[in-house]
Design brief:
Elements: H1 6-21, H2 24-40, H3 45-60, H4 66-83, H5 88-100, H6 105-117, H7 122-134, H8 138-151, H9 157-168, H10 172-185, H11 190-202, H12 206-219, H13 223-235, H14 239-250, H15 261-270, H16 274-286, H17 308-316
Helix pairs in contact: 1-2, 1-3, 2-3, 3-4, 3-5, 4-5, 5-6, 5-7, 7-8, 7-9, 8-9, 9-10, 10-11, 11-12, 11-13, 12-13, 13-14, 13-15, 14-15, 15-16
């Protein structure tokens, strides 16, 4: 997977640096640098893998549309595999693209297994564990996530995925245990606060939901904090205020981060507004949000799961 040209390798390293800056502009620079590295050395497997990663991130942060970015990501991975058919990371990345954006589980699982057979590392194990969780295969999911954590003991990704799998499993104690562990090491972890707030709202522990929501809105001016405020208001039966927060989230020009239609759908499902929840879920599907794959087991949708429109979405995403 390494470069034969020093120039290509230098461009690749510059690309990795831009990728690490994590802004839409730096991701686009990273893409350009990876493309230049490939021009200098068309057999540079690692540059193809990095290029695919950049394309997926640009889609993920909504800096480009799935229709543009994903075919390019697939093409880069297929080129990597043409050069090195046993490349575990290429198979692992392809598996995630096939599942999250292609909703093609049989093909994705085949790619995950091939990746593991060729010695896939923590990111692929973690992605496979997350994917198994969305399909209700919880024991296998925890098994893959445990291996991911052994391979990468300091990585936050596998632990975050484990928290989501526990939530889908409706095993709230398991998820809270991990989140408290994260908070012990990093008391100001935003993700841990957001997820603990979500767990509290699901369990109708309204006092805790409010504490977390207040911390979030004070420390993080973003749609996700408005979402937590909406849940905590609804938990206290103030549906009018809850709707105000959800409308504020959806308002055009709401700054400070990507507004997730899936999150808004969760908010409306939580207050029992099925029609709005289903409308936002359709938007989430159209945007190819990765979270849409949670719908079959997401506890907040337990109340609307029997609706024919909801079932049609499960089917369309290949979750039936």
């Amino acid at each position: 997977g390494h470069a034969t040209s020093a120039e290509a390798h230098d461009l690749y390293l510059q690309g990795l640096y831009q990728y690490s800056l994590q802004s839409p502009a730096s991701y686009k620079k990273a893409r350009q640098l990876m493309q230049r590295a490939i021009e200098k050395d068309p057999n540079y497997v690692n540059a193809y893998l990095a290029l695919a990663r950049v394309e997926v991130v640009l889609v993920h942060i909504t800096a480009e549309s799935p229709d543009e970015g994903l075919p390019r990501a697939r093409e880069a991975l297929e080129k990597a595999l043409a050069i090195d058919p046993q490349n575990a990371e290429a198979h692992g990345q392809l598996a995630s693209v096939q599942y999250i954006y292609g909703w093609d589980w049989p093909h994705a699982e085949q790619e995950f297994r091939t990746a593991i057979a060729h010695g896939a590392q923590a990111p692929t194990r973690s992605a496979y564990g997350w994917s198994l969780g969305t399909r209700g295969r919880f024991a296998e999911a925890h098994q893959q996530l445990a291996i991911a954590q052994e391979l990468d003991p300091l990585g936050i990704g596998p632990r975050g995925n484990e928290v989501m799998v526990y939530m889908l499993e409706h095993n709230y104690e398991g998820g809270k245990r991990i989140l408290r562990g994260i908070m012990d090491r990093k008391p100001d972890s935003l993700d841990a606060h957001l997820l603990l707030g979500l767990y509290a709202a699901i369990e109708r522990n309204c006092a805790a939901a409010t504490d977390y929501a207040n911390w979030d809105i004070k420390n993080f001016q973003a749609p996700a904090s408005l979402f937590e405020m909406a849940l905590s208001s609804a938990c206290h039966a103030d549906l009018t205020q809850s709707r105000k927060y959800l409308e504020q989230m959806a308002a055009p020009g709401e700054k400070g981060g990507y507004v997730s239609p899936y999150q808004i759908a969760l908010g409306y499902a939580y207050i029992g507004d099925k029609a709005q929840a289903l409308d936002y879920l359709s938007q989430s599907m159209a945007a190819k949000e990765g979270q849409i794959l949670y719908i079959k087991y997401d506890p907040i949708f337990d109340g609307i799961r029997s609706d024919p429109r909801f079932r049609a979405m499960e089917q369309r995403a290949g979750l039936d």
